Amino acid sequence: MRGIIVKLIGGTYSVCASDAVYECKARGVFRKKGVAPVCGDNVLFEVSSDGSGVIYEVLPRKSIIIRPPVANLDCLVLVNSVAEPSPNFELIDKFSAVAVFKNIEPVIVFTKTDLQSADKLLKIYKDVGFKSFSVDNITGTGVDELGEYLKGKISAFTGNTGVGKSSLLNNIFEGLCLDTAEVSKKLGRGKHTTRHTQLYPLNGGGYIADTPGFSTFETNRYDIIKKDELAQCFPEFEEYTGCCRFPDCTHTAEPGCEVIEAVNSGRISMSRYQSYKAMYKEAQSIKEWEIK
Fold first, then answer.
1. In CATH, what number does 65-210 get?
2. Whole-angstrom distance, CA of residue 189 vs CA of residue 260
């Protein structure tokens, strides 16, 4: 039979097929091959007479991210709050760059719009060309629009702790009742409330993943983007990168750099450019053996 892994807990895989959801184990051959099935994987499995299943093949993936561990994503939904906690632009830009690098569509979402407007934040990312939404988890404003856009796609929700991921998912899926936590006033961040990755079916087709929260991000834990590939992960750079004075321009400090000129004239967001420079500095420190 063929199905998609929708949940993994303690070595047991829940595989959704056309007629039901089966609890499966993975054959030991996967460990020998260094392949670990994850949520979103399309798999072939067998079911014995007692109803238990065994996964014997993971079908080719079009994408894979490590944290959250999800395969075959169409969209990476980056959830951020406009306040409490304040948006972390470098975190958003790192995640969106990795998504672009892996041919996954970044979707930007700002929550807690009851506290303040998200208009200026939305403009930054809409100008890049990213699909962007604002939602109010209290009134539900904007939730239906986001849910409609994600129909038919496999999407992972991720973002820093305390930004309202679980509340947003609860609004999209009535009756889901994921645990939520208030933001700590002392620490300025929320408690981790999600303990495992799970895919939830959308009405009308597609899946959405809820994922464990996190508060730090290291680009090379998700995928290594070499410094000469990084500019390609910032779509707004594209029309300027071929016009610089030097063909090997890094777009960090060189004279005659059209990207820097676009930043200075307001055509490229300063916050996005600062994120690029921080990522470029990190990429410079990557060793060759880490890339192989």
1. 3.40.50.300
2. 34
